[in-house]
Amino acid sequence: MPGVLLIAVAVGDQPSPTTAELAGEAVRLSIDLGGPVTALLAGKNVQPLAASLGGLGVDKVLVADSQAPTPPSPAWLLSAAEQAARQSSPAAILLTHGGGGRDLGPSLAYRLDTGIVTDATALRVENGELIITKPVFGGSAIAEFSVTTTPSVVTLRPRAFEAPESPAAREASIEAISTTETEGAIEVLEEVREQATSGPRLKDAKVIVSGGRGLGGPENWHYIDELAQVLGAAVGATRAVTDAGWVAPTLQVGLTGATVAPDLYITVGISGAVQHIAGISGARNVVAINRDGDANIFKYARFGVVGDWKQIVPAFTQRLKELRG
Amino acid sequence: MNGYDANALEAALRLKEQLGGKVTVVSLGPDAARDTLKRAIAMGADAAIQVNDPALNEADSTTTARALAAAIKSIGHVDLVLSGRQASDTDGGQVHLGIAQHLGLPAVSPIQKIDEASADSVTAERIVEDGYQRLKIRLPALLGVSSEMNEPRYPPLKGIMAAGRAQIPVLTAADLGLREPSPKVQLRRLYVETREAKVELIQADSLEEAGKVLADKLREARLV
Known about the structure:
Distance between the termini of chain B: 46 Å
Number of strands of chain B: 10
Shape of chain A: elongated
Strand order of the largest sheet of chain B: 3-7-4-5-6
Number of strands of chain A: 17
Strand content of chain B: 25-35%
Largest interface: A-B, 79 and 64 residues
Radius of gyration of chain B: 23 Å
Low-confidence stretches of chain A: none
Mean pLDDT of chain A: 89
Largest sheet of chain A: 8 strands, mixed
Structural class of chain A: alpha/beta
Oligomer: heterodimer
Order of helices and strands of chain B: HEHEHEHEEEEHEEEH
Structural class of chain B: alpha/beta
């Protein structure tokens, strides 16, 4: 039986935010590949969430509810994913490239002795075959891959794929699976969530305001925070800024930091080094404010202002405040 | 040496200093791998194994994982396998997970800190999307090490001398009983997306005015 399996891991008591993107893409692919869309919902006390997946167009939900007193371990998730894969024998398995999916995808592929492509930004079916697109060499080139074994395992870059446009009226069938792997090799002692300083999380943000070394020093960072606050945006930074300790390393966007895909990415004092660009190739609209009109960032920008940010940004922030009333 | 791998080796050396034992470093590749292994011995590793075979020069991550797993098996009993969380160039992050599957070990990655270690378990922090998990991992296991873990040491002079004398055995695909690799992923097309500058530069009488106009433009485009 062909079809598409998506792996939805619950974070706390919610399906992870990328689940809708996985489901949207799985439904689109299943039209060309044929077969049903199955979702594995894995986590602790996840049974109540199962019905909501039907609204995303999923035909069947396999529920793996962890009975352990501690949060699910990576080994348990792998075992649940393997079992779901063997049970549904799909043509393709989709996972998120965010969070734990980065490890789960490759481990699952090795267990199933099949191929995987990670961090995909587009998928399509050509002559019945799944073609997987991803940026390579730090985003300077695009590669297309196919997996020669079945199933194709693919991890999807968060926010590079669209969630279903309209909720489906479908009612998914729900089936529990029991995981066989003995617990104990890995035990989760605690989970520590680091609170985002304020506003939305970088990776899920629709709007991001990022600052670079051009800001001059940490004493000017409040201009970035204020602009972000007016827009309800997340705050990002270049590696130069996080390395200099102006802001927390978790704010770093780029090759060795977060990969983001907001609708709007506003940069202030960022020249656009390739390492930074690698992290924002999924941004739909880039705004550049920079003193140097030849800066690389302007090649990627839709709107730009050349000049001293100190004169531009306060007026820009003020005007946005008025517009958003 | 790949940056994350240097962090993994440093972690191994610190565990050895704390608990005793022996650190063996394994690498796949031609001459560059040999230089890396020499450096590892200079830093303090006890032994090194190079896997080198023309048949493996183009090895993908699946084949690399299989070859390295076979080399690790050749050592005999291993309590802990440490690896960089990913290659710093290709950012693949798959090989160590494959090694764990081939060895039948649980894999935990990326690790930012080892809190406690004993002969039969390790307590470590695994980075997750918005924080970390503290895990107790029963050994044997494989850990993928991240750069937050430590600052790799520089090889001391004594180590450099030892590396010069060290004999590093070379294993071939045949030695490891590796079959002809069959790639599971095929590159179909590689291209560069041409990017024309299509930026709309805001011009105004003053930069303050330009800032205002920029806000208006974003509103017009329904972006704010």
